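User: My collaborator sent over this chain with a note saying "see what the structure looks like." That's all I know about it. Can you take a look?
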Amino acid sequence: MSLDLKTLMWSHVHALTVLAEAGSFTTAAQRLGVSKAAMSQRVAELERAVGVPLVRRTTRSMQLTEAGQRLVEATRGNFEAIAQAFSGIQELAAEPRGLLRVTAPVALARQHLVSLLPQFLKQYPAVRLELDLSDRLRPLAQEGFDLAIRHTSMPPDTHVAWALRSTRSLLVASPAYLAQAGLPSHPSELSQHACLLYPRPGEASAWSLEHGDVEGRVSVAVSGPLAANNSEALREAALAGLGIALLPDFSAQSALAQGLLVPVLPQWQPVGAFGSHIWAVRPHSAQVPVAVKALVAFLRQAWEAKA
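Assistant: Without extra context I'll predict from the sequence alone. Here is the result:
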C-alpha cells in the first residue's frame, strides 16, 4: 500500500533530516526509536516518491546526494521550529519530566555525580536519566545528548554552558613514597622523582607550576612508571606508593582528608593540567528543557554545599 504525501512529508522527510545529522542509519534509527530496517525503508519510500536518489550507500558509510541535501536544507528549519514550539509547550508543565541523556567523564561521574543522582530522581520522579560515562568528548547534537558534564577551563562557544563549580589541580603522594624518596622543596626536583602522568597527545611530559609573583612559572620535564588517562587510576597508583601524581582536587580530596595522600609543593599551583571549572554544556537551542534546567540547578546547589 502506497503512503500518502502527508505521511511522507512528516515522517519520512523528518527521518531524512535525522539521518543527515546522525551520519549513519544505525544512529538515526536509535534516535527515532525504530529498527535500522525501518529507517532504511522510510528513505527508500521517500526516494520512490520523489523519483531521485537521496542517499548514497556503501558498506562503510552513507552520504546525501545533492537532491537529498537540498531537501534536508529546505525542511530542516521547519522541523526545528516544531521541536522548539513543542519544548515551549513542555515548559508550561509544572514538573520536569521525560528522558535526559547525559554524558560525563568517568572519574568525575564515579566520584561526584553518580551518588547524587538517586536524590535528583527521587525529587523529580517523572524524569528518567540515561548516563554515558566516557572520557571521549562526544558530539552532543549528533549523538542525541541533552547535556554534557565537562571539566575544562573554557567550554565551546558553540554551546550553552553553566559553571557548576571551580576546581584546582594538586600534586599529591603517599606518606610511604615520600618517606622513601624525600619531599621535594622546589619544582625542579620533580625531575628526580617518579611522577604519575596523564598523557596528552602531542604534548611533552612536563608539569608547569606557578608561585605567585615570586618566581613566576616553572616547567619541569617529568617521567615515571605509569601514565593513565584517568585520574582515578593515577590516584590509586599514588595510594600504592608508585610516585607523585598530579590530580584534580575532586579526585584527591577524600584521600587527603584521610591522610592517605599528602600535598606535595602546596605553595606551588600546577597550571594547564586540568580545567579550572566543571561545566554543564548543551547545544544552543531556543528553548532549554525544564528537566535540563532542574538537573543543572540541582548539581550546582549540591556541589556548592560540598565546597
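A starting point for your reply to your collaborator: The chain has eleven helices and 14 strands.
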